[in-house]
Design goal:
CATH class of the largest domain: Alpha Beta
Pfam family, one: BCA_ABC_TP_C
Radius of gyration: 19 Å
GO molecular function, one term: ATP binding
Oligomer: single chain
Largest sheet: 6 strands, mixed
Helix content: 25-40%
Bound molecules: adenosine-5'-triphosphate, magnesium ion
Number of strands: 10
CATH topology of the largest domain: Rossmann fold
Protein name: ABC transporter ATP-binding protein
Keywords: ATP-binding, Cell membrane, Membrane, Nucleotide-binding, Transport
Distance between the termini: 40 Å
Length: about 270
Amino acid sequence: MNAATMNHAQHAAHTIGGKLVGVTDLTMRFGGLTALDQLNMQINEGEVLGLLGPNGSGKTTFFNVLTGLYKATSGSIIYKGQEVIGQTPQEIYRSGVARTFQRSRLSLPLTVFDNIVIGDYQHMNHGLFFNLFQRKAFRAEYDSYVSKVEALLNIFSPPLVARMFEPVGTFTMIDRRRIEVCRALLSQPRLLLLDEPSAGMTHDETEALMDDILQVRGKLENLTIVLIEHEMNVIERITDRCIVFNYGKKIAEGTYAEITADPNVQTAYLGEAE
Ligand SMILES: Nc1ncnc2c1ncn2[C@@H]1O[C@H](COP(=O)(O)OP(=O)(O)OP(=O)(O)O)[C@@H](O)[C@H]1O
Ligand SMILES: [Mg+2]
């Protein structure tokens, strides 16, 4: 049986536990614009949570606040018992929150290896002194990164291992996305935030990428994933639960079947005149 024929339950090797993240009255204003408006929600340990909503409803802003890129105007985000608001992006990253970006953030001339390791820069011993005078230790650290990246690529996409030292610019869109997810996974996060990973890909590529993500989830215990996604069939296939935003508020929450049947959700999407 290959990944494409497995259903969700067969992938779900681990159980969904209690609250990993609790969001209370979270508000983010940009001047006069309220991007997150008194948002209340929670992320459960081990789940794949789908985050949906029309364009501009605050999904990316939520990731930006949760990862410390923006400081919320008010409200609270408790992650593993600690307040996130006020922590630096580095502190939050070190505590196990990793993400990918809506727009690709790879450096095309650099190799796959370099692009993946850049994500873990904060953990690396990169001082000049260390570099020049502790060559042996530097070499050991470098080698350990090579094996780490190799192991990750092997889990995620084995054909990429042989091309680890090729520039990213020579890869297809789907492989670039795979590389970005590997970069996020390098720090062994507890919470992985994926901002529209299917953007710019074909239907088949999206399916393949989602299979990879489900495989990874089966192999990495305790990984919780929040996925922003517009493609409803992806949401249906890989999420345990969904939350729908509109104008920075949570307007619905539940299984895919529940949220798609919700009149509030239908109005939010139909109201978005195209
Ligand atoms: N740095 C910023 N400065 C000013 N306004 C911002 C900033 N970031 C986001 N916004 C505004 O906040 C609102 C929410 O944007 P956000 O990017 O979170 O939406 P989204 O749900 O991710 O949309 P999409 O599906 O298009 O990616 C939008 O009106 C956006 O223009
Ligand atoms: Mg967005």
